[in-house]
Amino acid sequence: MTTIRWGLVGASNIAREHVINAIRANGGEVVSVMSADAGRANAYAAANGIPSATDSLDALLSRDDVDAVYISTTNELHRDQALAAARAGKHILCEKPLALDLSDAHRMVDAARAAGVVFATNHHLRNAGAHRAMRTAIAEGRIGRPLAARVFHAVFLPPFLQGWRINAPAAGGGVILDIAVHDADTLRFVLQDEPESVVAMTQSGGMGEGGLADAVMTTVTFRSGLIAQTHDAFTAKYAGTGFEVHGTEGSLIARDVMTQKPVGSVVLRNESGEHVIDFDRGDLYVRALGAFHGAVRGEGEPAATGEDGIRSLAFGLAVAEAAKTGGTVKVETGL
């Protein structure tokens, strides 16, 4: 397969801002976009140079010139759309969280496996040069044995992205499934470790509606014994993001790295002082789509697999349960 041809399931901001360009940068084509609103689909296609638009998922999936789909609809729609895509023999890149229920996420991944198509989760942060440099430094033993980590991922959700994320519980809104799942994947990737249990507290700071939390803090215990803290929010207008890992022989301090942009800094601090770690500043989504195209061609795996999506969803669901009950909740993935 020389040119991989894509259909977009959802006329989304993330596709417009990042994924369409990443597909094209990797030699792919976007041939059609689907939205339940026909007018939105047509306007989106015209604005983004996409030759076809439809309001029918079946019509999109029946096209012979669609090899893969990118699903970026609201969270409660992912399951059925992914299952339909697998039945149609289309490769699938799905936004996180994969579903609202762990068993549904397993169904999606299993269906893709049975159909012989690639299934990937769009966890963009593991494609950041900063996080890849941190992963390498830890693997090389530059901070000794990792003992603790902290993630600062409290941001301000701009008005044009609010909507269902803050007022639609049935759509899977709220800060946990929107941001905390990214923390889980980033921690897993950088540390090469697995979260085992969580405790959590949520906050309603004035943005969330209908019982949805707009901030959460968690404490996580990992398989290795490492402990981690995370802070996620939609309500922090002026906070910078960051990621720290502290080990027996040093610390990695990263700033402004929990973002869709290839920016920020990483510093190693140890007994000999402070050392800046350089890293690749390539586009996160271009890297992700390059890996996906490679996987479709039988060359390796996607940057984040369906199993990675299951694991981050399991983490998010455990955080939600821990915040609800006030107790410690195990992260049960079913894998």
TrEMBL record:
Q: Does the keyword DNA-binding apply?
A: no
Q: Name one GO molecular function term.
A: 1,5-anhydro-D-fructose reductase (1,5-anhydro-D-mannitol-forming) activity
Where is the Gfo/Idh/MocA-like oxidoreductase N-terminal domain positioned along the sequence? 4-123
Sorted alphabetically, which keywords does the UniProt record give? Oxidoreductase
Task: Tell me the ranges covered by the GFO/IDH/MocA-like oxidoreductase domain, including all copies.
Answer: 131-252
Mind telling me which InterPro entries this protein's record contains? Gfo/Idh/MocA-like_OxRdtase_N, Gfo/Idh/MocA_oxidrdct_glycsds, GFO_IDH_MocA-like_dom, NAD(P)-bd_dom_sf
UniProt-listed Pfam families: GFO_IDH_MocA (PF01408), GFO_IDH_MocA_C3 (PF22725)
Enzyme Commission identifier(s): 1.1.1.292
Domain of life, source organism: Bacteria
Keyword check for Oxidoreductase: yes
What is the recorded name of this protein?
1,5-anhydro-D-fructose reductase (1,5-anhydro-D-mannitol-forming)
Q: Which organism is it from?
A: Kaistia geumhonensis
